[in-house]
Amino acid sequence: MSEVNITDIREVLRNLAAEKGISFAAIAKEIGLSSGALSGFMNEKYVGDNERVESALSRWIEEQQYASELPETPEFIETQTASQIWTALRYARQMTCISIVCGNPGVGKTEAAREYCLRNDNVWMITASPSSASILECITELAEALGIDKAPRHKGPLVRTVRRRLSGTKGLIVIDEADHLGMEVLEELRLLQESACVGLVLMGNHNVYSNMTGVSRTVEFARLFSRIAKRVAINKTKKADVSAVAEAWHITSEEERTLLQEIAAKPGALRTLSHTLRLAAMTAHGAKKPLNETFIRKAYNDLNLDVDVSKLLRG
């Protein structure tokens, strides 16, 4: 590669970084380079393979240019369900109690909680999983969210460290996918919430709540269940939510809005609808045509979302 090309790439990269407000360290991470290597390259002091770095940066720049040409899509859409979830989060925080938000996949629980975290200080959200279902792993995830460096790797010291960090914050802990957590972990979270005087929200599918109202409730979950101050159950997508999505996407025709309602009623709900609209918008943009029912229907079919999974599993 010529020296002129390398110089051009440096200039383009500087402009892109400034325009997007992204650091060179973040760019290096995206393209699989060390921050030191990229810094050296940008300062014309890199002694390694400059052509390899230039090639990686060229590909990254091309991706950014491609992304910039795509149609703008709505970011967070404030739906009726989102407002309902925010009320549960605010209540848990203000009352320093426990709220439960449960519902079917795709109705907007996670996105609403993430947006609440972005809009409010001292709100920490983690996502439970099978690998973080133990006390140690779950509280370690919380410690990382709290910005605790070098958290202890033993339960007792770890919980005490997290408690000290939470105390006095009047904050809120949000646990997404909390249906992965067993009674022992939930009890530890309850004790942490009470002792630190913060709010706690458990989010997930309906098992989050049914675990506490089943046969075992009187023995294992009694203390936790009695402290649930607010429960929000979202069984399906509201028509008003889909209307809000249609407004955000500037979809006005009755036929198109009816189609959106039909898609949102399928498994996956708003998540499925979002994937469909994004693909439809890209396809319409490529065809230099406005987004319409034809593109939406084709996108839904291309995503192969209306499939009976049980039939596939049976072969």
From TrEMBL:
Record-annotated B transposition protein C-terminal domain positions: 226-303
One of the Pfam families matching this protein, by short name: AAA_22
Entries under InterPro entries matching the protein: AAA_22 (IPR049945), B_transposit_C_sf (IPR036733), B_transpositn_C (IPR009084), ExeA_AAA_ATPase_DNA-bind (IPR052026), Lambda_DNA-bd_dom_sf (IPR010982), P-loop_NTPase (IPR027417)
Name of the protein described by the UniProt record: AAA family ATPase
PANTHER family: GENERAL SECRETION PATHWAY PROTEIN A-RELATED (PTHR35894), MU-LIKE PROPHAGE FLUMU DNA TRANSPOSITION PROTEIN B (PTHR35894:SF5)
A single MF term (Gene Ontology): DNA binding
A Gene Ontology biological process term: DNA transposition
Domain ORC1/DEAH AAA+ ATPase: 98-209
Highest taxon above the source species: Bacteria
